[in-house]
C-alpha cells in the first residue's frame, strides 16, 4: 500500500474555499506498522462516506515507518467530526503511544485547486517550525 490515490467522497462546490490538511506520522518501531496499516485502512473506508470530505490521499512508506495523509474538507467542523468518530478516533487513541513524531498543517485552497498535489503538501509540511510529539 505505497500510495492511495486522491479520492473524492463528495464533490466540492465550485468557487468555494476548502480546508486542506496534510500530515506526516513516524512510528517508533517496525513492529507497529501492521497495526497502523490496518487502522489506516479502516479510517480510509470511513472517509469515503464522511460528510464534508472533499478529497483524500495517503502515502505509506512502511519500511521507513513513515505515513502521510492529505485531505480536503468543507470546514474544520467536518474534519474534526471525522477525526473524533470511530474508527478514526479509535485509531488515533490506539496508535498515539507508537508515534515517534506527528506533524500537520492546515491551509485554505479554492475548490478549483483540488486535488492538491503531494509536492505542495510535502513542501508545506517541511516549512513547519517543528515536529509535534504525540500526547503533548
Describe the protein's architecture and organization.
The structure is a single chain. The chain has 136 residues and is α+β, with helices and mostly antiparallel strands. The chain is 30% helix and 33% strand. The chain has four helices and five strands; from the N terminus they run ββαββααβα. A five-stranded antiparallel β-sheet has the order 1-3-4-2-5, with helices on both faces. A hairpin with a 4-residue loop joins strand 3 (53-61) and strand 4 (66-73). Mean pLDDT is 93; it is low at 131-136.
Task: Record the strand order, biggest sheet.
Answer: 1-3-4-2-5
What is the structural class? Answer: alpha+beta
Question: How far apart are the termini?
Answer: 29 Å
Percentage of β-strand residues: 25-35%
Number of helices: 4
Low-confidence stretches: 131-136
Q: How big is the Rg?
A: 14 Å
Care to count the β-strands?
Answer: 5
* Percent of residues in helices: 25-40%
Largest sheet: 5 strands, antiparallel
List keywords for this structure.
136 residues; five-stranded antiparallel beta sheet; disordered C terminus; alpha+beta
Amino acid at each position: 500500500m505505497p500510495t492511495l490515490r486522491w479520492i473524492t467522497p463528495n464533490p466540492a462546490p465550485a468557487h468555494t474555499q476548502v480546508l486542506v490538511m496534510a500530515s506526516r506520522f513516524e512510528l517508533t518501531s517496525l513492529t507497529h506498522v501492521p497495526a497502523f496499516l490496518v487502522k489506516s485502512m479502516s479510517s480510509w473506508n470511513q472517509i469515503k462516506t464522511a460528510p464534508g470530505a472533499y478529497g483524500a490521499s495517503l502515502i505509506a512508506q512502511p519500511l521507513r515507518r513513515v505515513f502521510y495523509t492529505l485531505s480536503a474538507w468543507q470546514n474544520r467542523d467536518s474534519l474534526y467530526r471525522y477525526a473524533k468518530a470511530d474508527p478514526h478516533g479509535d485509531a488515533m487513541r490506539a496508535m498515539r503511544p507508537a508515534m515517534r513524531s506527528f506533524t500537520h498543517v492546515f491551509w485554505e485552497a479554492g475548490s478549483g485547486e483540488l486535488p492538491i498535489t503531494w509536492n505542495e503538501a510535502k513542501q508545506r509540511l517541511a516549512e513547519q517550525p517543528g515536529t509535534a510529539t504525540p500526547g503533548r
